[in-house]
Amino acid sequence: MERQMPRFVTVFFFLALSGFIILVCNITSLEKLSGQVISTFYQIQNSIHSVFTSPGNLWPLELNHTYCAHFGQVPTVEEANEERYLLNSIAWPGPLVQGLPVELSSDPSKSYFVIQGPAEQHIGGQLEVNVHVQNFLGLPKKHGGDFLIARLHTPELGAGVAGQVQDHHNGNYTVLFPLLWAGVVWVEITMVHPSEAVVVLKRLQEEHYDRVFFKSLFRSGFLSETTVCNLCLPLNHQPLCNYTDPETGEPWYCYKPKMLGCDTRIIHYKGGYKNNLITEYEAKFFKSNVNMKVPIHASGMGNVTVLPAEKGLANFKKNKKTSGFYFHNIWRPLRGTVLQQFNDSSAITRCLRGKIIHMFGDSTVRQWFEYLTTSVPSLKEFNLHSLKKVGPFLAVDSKNNILVSYRCHGPPIRFTSVLSSELHYVANEIDRIKGGPGTVILVSVWSHFSTFPIEVYIRRLRHIRRAVVRLLNREPATLVVIRTANLQKIDPGYSLYNSDWFSLQINAVLCAMFKGLNVQMLDAWEMTLAHHLPHLLHPSPPIIKNMIDLILSNICPVGKKRRS
Ligand SMILES: *[C@@H]1O[C@H](CO)[C@@H](O)[C@H](O)[C@H]1NC(C)=O
Ligand SMILES: *[C@@H]1O[C@H](CO)[C@@H](O)[C@H](O)[C@H]1NC(C)=O
Ligand SMILES: *[C@@H]1O[C@H](CO)[C@@H](O)[C@H](O)[C@H]1NC(C)=O
Ligand SMILES: *[C@@H]1O[C@H](CO)[C@@H](O)[C@H](O)[C@H]1NC(C)=O
Ligand SMILES: *[C@@H]1O[C@H](CO)[C@@H](O)[C@H](O)[C@H]1NC(C)=O
Ligand SMILES: *[C@@H]1O[C@H](CO)[C@@H](O)[C@H](O)[C@H]1NC(C)=O
Which fold has domain 337-555? Predict the structure, then answer.
């Protein structure tokens, strides 16, 4: 049944397309179309929908998920079940046919939102906003899958909170915001991608795992050679060097150099980005200021006034989905830790006294290392003669017995140059740590996985999770903090490799896989979404300070004795 669907899709696609040819030829006069022709459009679109409404919402699984299966280990039954569950949980709805005229795709400027409820509401309540997505013709969309983000804010108060977006799969969306402070609050809804662009991103994720490619330099004596490397390479092409990690089984391969042996690999580096990934037609769904990270305007009121809580109703802690909010530009977590401000270096030193902090991952955790070493003068960086921006890095304050280290995660890592000898997997590193109440592990592994099928990320996290479980079993008092992906500045080219949509999927998997473990999740997504500063791969210093304050608040919670 599922196998046959693509053929049906093709047939309907051509039927539909033939109906649209006239329109496509006369695209400039589209706006003047008579209502009758437009309703014919929708009859066709609706008939396509009814044919393909499958029971349940499993249809995205028809994608080929056997990516490079022969290069990794065969998953156990349990692993396969977990993977299936995770893939189902992140299944993304969208248009069921592709190739329709661009005019029928989602247009943020023709879409609108409507605030529900009275103009005055109370703290502790929930603000509901309905979003109606329309196409370039100004007609309602009939399916879901648009990627929207939402923020509620009061600029004068430095206050902001992320909204939860619910897709009704019919072109309508509901956004819910907890009301957490008094004042005039403004609703901000942004279309990151129309559903038609998400389809393209899904295709890239499955088909072009090598759109970022890697290389290695091999050297022996005066001889040096360079070859292409990746998690998976076409077989029967030329001989491969197999660098599969013996401990985790994480695959990594390079083409074998012509003259040198596989054991002469010296340097791993990012080869580059492949171009010409999408067609001219697909590119129309990735236009800055048209349909990429474009605000959706309000129909009617764009703000409400929030009044102090009504008696007995101020119970926003019930809101399980929101991690926290900004007030006076200070992050206020809604659960767990009470945030403290660590404004001066002596407060940080006091908190870190006797501690060993290990940071593992990409450049977004390296930012924390840089923050600590620049804001705490007594923490002296030890010169390991490492490559700039790559590491490993080490900083010590021997007087206060503080050690802070940073090491990047193993391949796929897109840094310009990493010595092969420094390519270590996070799981293996964690396995070598004693742990205990004086040890803190900070992990951020996400941005270099966006170009791979999500199964690759699931496998990597599974190995890290196992190592964390072993560590917490050895030393339950070890503090483990895991940082999620954050929003980024995207342009049409960049989005094909690093779209926030990839990060959204990565976060869903990350949170599901660490659920129930005694680890702290640091919600970098909401911390960047709720803040007024622009989205950046490396969030701005004020956001980093809030993250560090949150981590330090976890290490040195108020009212409790120091952890060691
Ligand atoms: C396009 O529209 C013009 C006038 O609006 C008409 O003469 C022409 O036949 C149309 N072309 C097609 C391919 O239908
Ligand atoms: C999925 O991909 C694998 C490897 O690329 C291929 O062998 C297999 O036939 C594909 N399966 C389907 C259903 O397309
Ligand atoms: C979406 O919302 C609009 C406006 O409230 C409503 O007219 C329309 O019926 C809704 N669409 C669906 C499919 O429910
Ligand atoms: C690479 O080595 C690993 C572990 O030794 C092995 O399981 C895997 O099958 C090898 N890959 C290939 C393509 O031979
Ligand atoms: C709230 O929105 C309304 C309608 O758009 C506007 O008239 C009003 O000035 C806004 N309130 C504030 C405090 O800006
Ligand atoms: C830290 O600095 C902020 C902003 O300057 C200030 O509002 C806050 O009171 C300070 N907190 C402490 C504990 O010094």
Answer: Rossmann fold (3.40.50)
For 42, phi then psi, to 5°, come to -75, -30
Contact 341 CB / ligand 6 (< 6 Å): yes
Task: Identify the CA nearest to 515 among candidates 332, 270, 320.
Answer: 320
Q: How far is the CA of 30 from the centre of ligand 1 (A)?
A: 11
Counting from 1 in the atom list of ligand 5, the atom nearest the Cα of 298 is 5
C-alpha–C-alpha distance, residues 120 and 131, integer Å: 20
CA nearest ligand 1 atom 4, residue:
26
Write down the pLDDT at residue 528: 98
User: Ligand 5, from 185, 187, 301: best to mutate by most atoms within 8 Å of Cβ?
Assistant: 301
Distance between Cα 15 and ligand 1 center (Å): 20
Whether the pLDDT of residue 41 is over 50: the answer is no
**Are the beta carbons of 117 and 150 closer than 8 angstroms?**
no
- Tell me the average pLDDT of the chain: 87
Asked whether 343 lines ligand 6 (CB < 6 A), one says yes
Q: Is the CB of 64 under 6 A from ligand 2?
A: yes
The two tokens of residue 68 are: 């490079």
Distance 340 CA to ligand 6 centre (A): 9
The vertex-254 CA angle with 252 and 257, nearest 5°, equals 155
Nearest-angstrom CA–CA distance, 32 and 169: 28
Look up the CATH superfamily of 90-211+278-335. Answer: Immunoglobulins (2.60.40.10)
Angle at 140 between CA 61 and CA 297, to 5 degrees: 105
Model pLDDT for residues 85-118, shown as the tens digit of each residue: 999 999 999 888 888 999 999 999 999 999 999 9
What does the domain layout of the chain look like in residue ranges?
4-46, 55-76+212-273, 90-211+278-335, 337-555
In tens, the pLDDT along 235-266 reads 767 899 999 999 999 999 999 999 999 999 99
- Give the distance (Å) from ligand 3 centre to CA of residue 114: 12
